[in-house]
Design brief:
The protein is of the alpha/beta class. It contains ten helices and twelve strands.
């Protein structure tokens, strides 16, 4: 079982991103997803910068995948999507059907990200004929749904599961961060840069509920499926995905890698994560419960 590092969802400075991926070069991760997936206004890094990072990661022995925008709203964004899909030597993670269409017309293999609503084996098998190589399981589905799908899917499709980080729940044409500052989306002044882990939205009872991240809505609690790695291995999961964190990402990757290779047990891995990040955690969707719940601690 391999460990992947998903794309950075938050808006970090260019220096932070360059330093972050420099550290990832020597990490235990097997696969790294690169690129902006949330908002085209987040332009600290250009495509050429991402490709330079990709080359260094490839030279360090990592498999590199270029991720595309999840919500295409303008011609300029579509042109950017075409450049990524047509002009790269790397595998592409398609985060909407525009990217899937471009890749399939070129007869190129592609990955489907967790925000593409593919929920069953017949859909996967149809897309396999179009070039689908890997499917990242939607975060709102359960272990039972995953197991049933794996039984019926094309055996050549790799299965990847999001196992750690704030859940990417939804995308909207409206920018919630700009609205929080009472400014227009088109004149947002890059306010997301001021919130390295998004804007917390709490309930009236002052309990963490959601994270507002530009046009993206995320869970306030962080998904943690470290205790389910063995189950994933048994049902046929090929890759487990960690979402980038502002701190300790390399250490988190190492814990999941050790668990994936069965070098440490579930309880030890859980305790190591607790020492790095006390949570709160959630895992409800995996167990067919409300997503924000924590059902099992290990």
């Amino acid at each position: 079982m391999k460990v992947s590092l998903g794309p950075v969802y938050f808006y970090w400075s260019k220096k932070k991103l360059l330093d972050f991926y420099k550290e990832i070069e020597s990490s235990a991760v097997d696969i790294v997803y690169l690129g902006e997936v949330v908002c085209s206004k987040r332009n600290q890094l250009m495509l050429s910068d991402w490709l330079n990072i990709a080359k260094r990661l490839k030279d360090a022995g990592k498999e590199v995948v270029l991720s595309t925008l999840t919500l295409i709203e303008a011609d300029s964004e579509l042109k950017r999507l075409v450049r990524v899909c047509k002009g790269s030597e790397y595998l592409v993670e398609a985060n909407d059907f525009a990217a899937i269409n471009i890749m399939s017309k070129q007869n190129k293999a592609f990955v489907i990200g967790p925000n593409v609503n593919i929920y069953n084996a017949p859909s996967l098998n149809m897309l396999a004929k179009k070039g689908l190589k890997r499917w990242c399981f939607p975060v709102e589905l359960s272990r039972v749904a995953l197991q049933d799908t794996i039984k019926e899917k094309d055996k050549n499709i790799e299965v990847e599961v999001f196992v750690f980080g704030n859940l990417p729940l939804a995308f909207s044409a409206r920018c919630f961060t700009a609205r929080a500052y009472n400014i227009d989306k088109d004149a947002c002044k890059h306010k997301c840069l001021d919130h390295k882990e998004g804007l917390l939205l709490s309930t009236q009872e002052n309990k963490p509920f959601l994270i507002m991240n530009g046009i993206q809505t995320m869970s306030a609690n962080s998904l943690n499926l470290i205790g389910q790695v063995e189950t994933m291995r048994e049902i046929g999961v090929d890759i487990i995905r960690v979402s980038p964190q502002f701190t300790d990402t390399r250490k988190i990757i190492k814990i999941f890698k050790n668990r994936a290779e069965n070098l440490i047990d579930s309880n030890t891995a859980t305790e190591k994560l607790r020492l790095l990040n006390s949570g709160p955690y959630c895992d409800g969707y995996w167990f067919e419960k409300e997503g924000m719940k924590r059902v099992k601690s290990a």
